[in-house]
Each structure stands twice: as structure tokens, then as C-alpha cells.
């Protein structure tokens, strides 16, 4: 993307007291401690986790093993440039993403052996899926079945949007999700444009770039099922992560767990599950784990095949905070910078559904920004209490 002359610099994690700094200095060590307890890892795995714990705050970025299957890919993504530097002095997005790659290395996720393919975050993902809150959310679908189509559209869109609050990494460091602010929860709402891109004519292809498993993925799947049933889309491609990432990000195993949760639920939820099952088996719904989805770069740098694929979609919906950062570049834009400007490079119509959990934001009106700042200072940016639906048609 050619840079605008007023483009702010990419965020780093080097400012003590800032949100990015706290993620590197506090959230990452907490994640390692949590992973240590998640399985009875052997002494070698414990040593590797301890080394990462020391290294990720005090040390420097270490290279991947020479025989790592994805070493060349990470080199192309910048590993040689950043190796040997402090985690805090390189782009925050890169540093965080590489942390998860190194965490998988430490638990032996890629190496032949007993821990190969074992998702270190699976216990917490499954606990969430099994939680009584998930039952409550699914039983609410029964009452929705008799409501007018427009009301169902809105409920399922908002379910998917607010499902993004359920991010396990975020909960590790968010002391309280509540705010006393009386500012509206939605800071931008382009949902009319979103619906206008998906009329009930049945021809559209939706690309949904998923974020978290469990209580976010379930409503994402419900939204897809609803759009298929209403004829607003003919097919959907669900983009997930090729491996565990940012604690709760959805992998293919998580999609299958969520689907099983739906099909085994009572009432309307099971019907949604059956719709999805049928769509997967007849090819109207496909699941895609592109390597770039687990990468450390903004979408402006997506490779040609992905660009072509998303360019062919009627609409690409990006879920969540991290995808938003990757979509607009991980930069501290003035909040009133038009969303359409910073996403002009994207190969087709694009929508962001996101709760606000990091400083990056674009597309606010002057009035909304002023009201948020007057009520909360800058807390609205990271508290997860506000959300947005932004669309560039
Ligand atoms: O993408 P998600 O799940 O909505 O949020 C991811 C998140 O919790 O992790 C990043 C910090 O580690 C931030 O982008 C955000 O706070």
C-alpha cells in the first residue's frame, strides 16, 4: 500500500505504561504460566517454557530451529531482520505473533513426538464451549425463530459482533470489562451498508475471517447458517488459523467442536448445526487455513493468492480486534481517519466486526470521539465495552 504522508508509525511495545507494553511484559508471561498448567508437560517442555518466559521479557528474539518447517516463511515475514532484537523494540504485531509461534515451539506442537498437534489452549477453549453461558446463548435461538427476518438479521449480526468480547487472552489481563460510561456501545454502525451488500437474492459469496473459538465462533457459525438459510449468501468461506494462535483463535479442530456443540444442542440450535453440516458436506461452506492467517503482517501485505480469493468475494467480514489491527495497519491513526481510506487497498468490499480491545481505531465521527473521550478518557479504546461495525463497500 503506498503510504499516505500523514501515516502514523507502526506501534511498538516499548513504552512502559502503554497497552502494547503491558501485553508483552504481563500478558505473555501470564499465558506461559497458564500453558504450563494446561497439560502434564515433560521436563524438556518445562525447560523450554521457562526459557521462553525469561527470554520474552528480558531477552532478545531468538531464531527458529534450523529445521523448523516454516523457517523460510518466517524469514520472508521478517525473522532475520528482527532476530537478536528486544521483543519490545520491533513492531508490536510482529512481536506478539512470533511469541505464539515460539510458544508452540516450546510445547513441541510441530515436532514429531507425543505433543505434536496438541493445542495448548484446548482445555480453556473446551471449558468455554461447555460453559452454562453457551447453553443460555443457544437456547435464546428458540425465541428468535418466530421473529421477523429483520430482527433475526440484527440479532445474529450482533451475536457475532459481541461474541468477540469472549477472547481468552483479553480476559487474562482485563481487570473488569464494565464501564460506568453511558456512551452508546456501538461507536460506528454501518450495518445498513452491510445488509445492502448481501440482498436476499442468493448469489453472494461471503468470506468470513474468523477470530476466536468457542463463544465467538459459535455465533459466527450461526450467522453463516442464517445468511445461507435466508438466501443472502450462496456460499461462504470461513478463514481460520492454521495452528493455535493468540490463545483462543479458532483452528479447524475448534470449528468441528463448535459444530458438534450445535448439532448436539436441543431446540433451534441443532437446526442451525444441521444447516452448517449440510453446507460443509455439499461445499457451500468451506474452511480455509491460509498460512497468512497465522502470520505477523498487516493485510496490506497479503500474498497474491489470498488477495485474489478475497477480491472474488462479495464481502469479506473480518472478526475481532487483531484482524482490525491487521486490516488498518497497526498504527495509532487519528480516530476520525476515514475507514474507507485506510482500507482502500483491500481487494473487495470489506467489513470489520470488532469489540474495542486495543488502541487502534479509525472511522469515528468527531462527535463520537469527543463523547467517548469526555466520558472515559482513553479507556474506551481497550476495555472491550464498545464495538463497531464498519464497512467499505
Ligand atoms: O483479536 P481479538 O481476539 O479480538 O483480540 C485480541 C487481543 O486480545 O489481543 C491483542 C493483544 O494481544 C489485541 O489485539 C487484543 O487485545
Break the fold down into its secondary structure elements and pairings:
Blueprint: H1 19-38, H2 43-58, H3 71-76, H4 79-82, H5 92-106, H6 122-130, H7 132-144, H8 149-163, H9 168-173, E1 186-189, H10 191-197, E2 205-209, H11 217-229, E3 235-239, H12 252-263, H13 268-282, E4 285-288, H14 304-311, E5 315-319, H15 320-328, H16 339-342, E6 350-355, H17 366-376, E7 387-392
Parallel strand pairs: 1-7, 2-3, 2-5, 3-4, 5-6
Antiparallel strand pairs: 6-7
Helix pairs in contact: 1-2, 1-5, 2-5, 6-12, 8-11, 11-13, 12-13
The structure holds 1-O-phosphono-beta-D-fructofuranose (F1X).
Cofactor: Mn(2+)
Keywords: Hydrolase, Manganese, Metal-binding, Methyltransferase, Transferase
GO molecular function: metal ion binding; methyltransferase activity; phosphatase activity
In brief:
Helix content is 47%, strand content 9%.
Fold and architecture overview:
It catalyses: beta-D-fructose 1-phosphate + H2O = D-fructose + phosphate; beta-D-fructose 6-phosphate = dihydroxyacetone + D-glyceraldehyde 3-phosphate. Pfam families: ARMT1-like_dom. InterPro entries: ARMT-1-like_metal-bd_sf, ARMT1, ARMT1-like_metal-bd. It comes from Streptomyces chartreusis. Helix 11 links the parallel strand 2 and strand 3. With 393 residues, this protein is an alpha/beta fold. It has 17 helices and 7 strands. The radius of gyration is 20 Å and the shape is globular. Helix 6 packs parallel to helix 12 and helix 11 packs across helix 13. The protein folds into 2 domains: 102 residues, no CATH class; 269 residues, 3-Layer(aba) Sandwich (Rossmann fold). The model has no long low-confidence stretch (mean pLDDT 94). The longest helix has 20 residues. 1-O-phosphono-beta-D-fructofuranose binds next to helix 9 and helix 15. 1-O-phosphono-beta-D-fructofuranose (F1X) binds next to helix 9 and helix 15.
